């Protein structure tokens, strides 16, 4: 028995394991500490207690270079703090915010035409969106193509020549990039 | 304004005093509503009678007086007002309402759009410095942005028809279940004084923000004038009802006409024969 214990203690020579056994008198106690199924370790330190004592410091060793306290920046000649805009809380109940989302369900809740059985659609009520962009879902290339289609009818090339040129250049560049530099989408591969 | 005539004058000789009392009575009293014996509203016939769920019963109140007077009890269709609230569907609806109308106009210039940068800054070899082709390349300060925002970027998408329909049902059910739904006979109030409306809402314990919903989009004059000075009391027709507004306002007040119209519309969509064609995916330029 003792030889077994002795061999255990000698073979398991790791400092970490042996350290708590320094000062323990007998070999039996040491052996018990090493291997005893009836012994269990009990947690007595909790991170929550540390947090409860106060804020747990982070970035140990880091020195904050920004001012955390003290006077606000001010001019030396005239001892007056630099002006900061006065805080004005937003009005959550102005007309726009109070009635946000109104008529979004008009195709469900609105009356339908008696003959055609059609209702209004919420895309028809997007007054603040440019008319060519209402109900449009797409990437930049698709959006630009649609814009060009709508805009060329109204003589855009004559009225805004630089913007017309930029639009066409952008479309050309995107065409080259998308078709020669990127892979086609997964659903296009056979 | 109702005038009350004095049947017995207090002092038959003092006409001036009688006149004074007469006008005092006229000015100080609000008209008392004369009602037939309660309950006035007895029952409601439900369209598409529910087979497996019991209808929910709600009190019908008045708007004539500050104190609540219950005029009767009506049934509400469980398919509309007693659907198990799906929080994920409500969230999807709110997200859709916030995003589908959003267009980002943020823009950054590409290297070929930034002013300048056509000329090679220095010779390729000999100077000892790094080689460059343009002063507006993305690695330069003041140069173009490679994958930056490109104006205009639409965030439009259309939520499925049934998802939106169920969003409405879930929100209405949640409102009823949480005692935030009230039914009134009509939105006629006796005065256009804003304080009357405030006292009414405070007395009945309706939330800070109230959304009044009626069938017609032209509301009675008094309530329009009274609620005009408050941003948190809002009037809406039935076709304007939406999930976001119902969640933003604490209390939802529906008139009887609004309840009828709302149920009719939602039950129509739930029981229509051509639901598949009606709930098809939205296609651009189809509407």
TrEMBL record, chain A:
UniProt xrefs under Pfam families: MRP-L51
GO cellular component, one term: mitochondrial large ribosomal subunit
Record has Repeat as a keyword: no
Keyword list, A-Z: Mitochondrion, Ribonucleoprotein, Ribosomal protein, Transit peptide
GO molecular function: structural constituent of ribosome
Record keyword Ribosomal protein present: yes
Protein name: Large ribosomal subunit protein mL51
UniProt GO BP: translation
Cellular compartment(s): Mitochondrion
Family as reported in the entry's similarity comment: Belongs to the mitochondrion-specific ribosomal protein mL51 family.
UniProtKB/TrEMBL annotation, chain B:
GO aspect biological process, one term: translation
Coiled-coil region list: none
GO CC terms in record: mitochondrial inner membrane; ribonucleoprotein complex; ribosome
Cross-referenced Pfam families: Ribosomal_L4
Region of interest (Disordered), residue spans: 114-137
Superkingdom per UniProt: Eukaryota
Primary localization: mitochondrion
Subcellular location: Mitochondrion
Compositionally biased residues, Basic residues: 117-134
Keywords, ordered alphabetically: Mitochondrion, Ribonucleoprotein, Ribosomal protein
InterPro entries: Ribosomal_uL4 (IPR002136), Ribosomal_uL4-like (IPR013005), Ribosomal_uL4_dom_sf (IPR023574)
Gene Ontology MF term list: structural constituent of ribosome
Family under the similarity heading: Belongs to the universal ribosomal protein uL4 family.
The protein's name: Large ribosomal subunit protein uL4m
Source organism (scientific name): Daphnia magna
Record gene name: EOG090X0EDZ
């Amino acid at each position: 028995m003792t030889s077994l214990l002795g061999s255990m203690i000698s073979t398991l020579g790791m400092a970490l394991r042996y350290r708590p056994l320094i000062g323990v008198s007998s070999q039996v106690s040491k052996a018990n500490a090493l291997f005893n199924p009836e012994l269990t370790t009990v947690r007595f330190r909790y991170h929550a207690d540390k947090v409860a004592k106060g804020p747990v410091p982070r970035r140990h060793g880091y020195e904050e270079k920004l001012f955390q306290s003290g006077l606000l920046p001010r001019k030396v000649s005239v001892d007056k703090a630099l002006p900061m805009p006065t805080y004005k809380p937003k009005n959550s109940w102005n007309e726009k915010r109070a009635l946000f989302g109104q008529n979004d369900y008009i195709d469900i809740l609105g009356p339908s035409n008696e003959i055609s059985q059609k209702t209004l659609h919420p895309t028809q009520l997007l007054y603040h969106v440019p008319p060519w962009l209402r109900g449009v879902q797409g990437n930049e290339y698709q959006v630009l193509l649609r814009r060009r289609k709508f805009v060329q009818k109204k003589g855009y090339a004559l009225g805004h020549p630089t913007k017309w040129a930029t639009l066409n250049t952008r479309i050309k560049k995107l065409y080259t990039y998308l078709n020669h530099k990127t892979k086609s989408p997964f659903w296009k591969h056979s | 304004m109702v005038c009350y005539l004095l049947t017995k004058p207090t002092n038959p000789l003092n006409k001036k005093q009688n006149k004074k009392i007469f006008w005092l009575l006229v000015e100080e009293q609000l008209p008392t509503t004369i009602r037939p014996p309660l309950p006035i509203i007895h029952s409601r016939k439900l369209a598409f009678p529910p087979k497996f769920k019991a209808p929910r019963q709600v009190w019908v109140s008045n708007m004539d007086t500050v104190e609540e007077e219950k005029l009767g009890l009506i049934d509400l269709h469980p398919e509309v007002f007693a659907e198990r609230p799906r929080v994920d569907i409500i969230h999807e609806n709110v997200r859709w309402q916030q995003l589908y109308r959003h267009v980002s106009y943020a823009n950054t210039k590409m290297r070929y759009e930034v002013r300048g940068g056509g000329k090679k800054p220095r010779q390729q070899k000999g100077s000892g410095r790094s080689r460059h082709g343009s002063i507006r390349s993305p690695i330069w300060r003041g140069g173009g942005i490679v994958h930056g925002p490109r104006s205009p970027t639409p965030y439009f998408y259309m939520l499925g028809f049934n998802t939106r329909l169920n969003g409405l049902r879930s929100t209405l059910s949640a409102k009823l279940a949480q005692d935030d739904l009230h039914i009134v006979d009509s939105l006629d109030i006796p005065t256009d004084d804003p304080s009357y409306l405030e006292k009414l809402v405070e007395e009945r314990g309706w939330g800070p923000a109230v959304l009044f919903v009626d069938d017609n989009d032209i509301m009675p004059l008094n309530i329009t004038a009274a609620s005009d000075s408050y941003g948190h009391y809002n009037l809406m027709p039935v076709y304007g009802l939406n999930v976001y507004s119902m969640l933003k306002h604490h209390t939802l007040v529906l008139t009887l006409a609004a309840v009828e119209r709302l149920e009719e519309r939602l039950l129509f969509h739930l029981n229509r024969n051509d639901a598949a064609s009606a709930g098809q995916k939205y296609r651009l330029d189809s509407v």
